[in-house]
Structure formats: C-alpha cells, structure tokens
Specification:
Layout lengths: L1 E3 L5 E3 L4 E2 L6 H11 L15 H9 L4 H14 L3 H12 L3
Antiparallel strand pairs: 1-2, 2-3
C-alpha cells in the first residue's frame, strides 16, 4: 500500500507522494497503518551514476569562481593547472 522513497516522503500505491509531516492527514493514515504492524515496500535502489554524471560531480567540486581563478592564474603564470585538473578528471571517468 505504501512505498518508501530515497527522500523523506512516502509514496502511496495510487502514486501520491506523501510528505513526512504529522499535520498531513495522509501521513497520519500512513503512521496508523504502520502502527498496525504493516511494513512499506523498500525504496528503489538508485542507479549507479554514469561516467558523464561522475565527471559533472567532480567538476562541480570547484566553484565557477575557483575554476576561473585557475584559468586566470594559468594565463598570468604560463601554467596549465586548470587543464591538468580537467584532464585528470577526464582520465578517471572516460566516456
């Protein structure tokens, strides 16, 4: 009748998403259902991220400002810090 999600909400068998809010009557009904000894279906296991998604996660570990700072410093100092950083991520997570 109910299914857990990977967030705090619960999904009902009709597809309704119920927020975990005690003031919500649907959530109160869910708690009552649980207190009667029922168990919800487990949440779906999220799929592994693709290499493209992993790259994006790594790129986003540095803010845009940090990346522009690296680019600027490379221009001023004649270094390749930013390119080396990006190449390292691309090497870790090939397409």
């Amino acid at each position: 009748m109910y299914k857990l999600t990977n967030s705090t909400s619960i999904t009902r068998n009709d597809g309704a998403s119920i927020p975990a809010n005690p003031a919500n009557t649907d959530y109160a009904a869910y708690l009552q259902w649980r207190s009667e000894g029922n168990t919800p279906e487990p949440a779906d296991i999220p799929p592994e991220p693709t290499n493209r998604e992993r790259r994006a996660i790594e790129y986003n570990r540095k803010s845009t400002g940090e990346q522009f700072g690296m680019m600027f410093d490379d221009q001023v100092n004649g270094t390749t810090t930013w390119l080396d950083w990006r190449s390292g991520i691309k090497a870790m997570y090939r397409k």
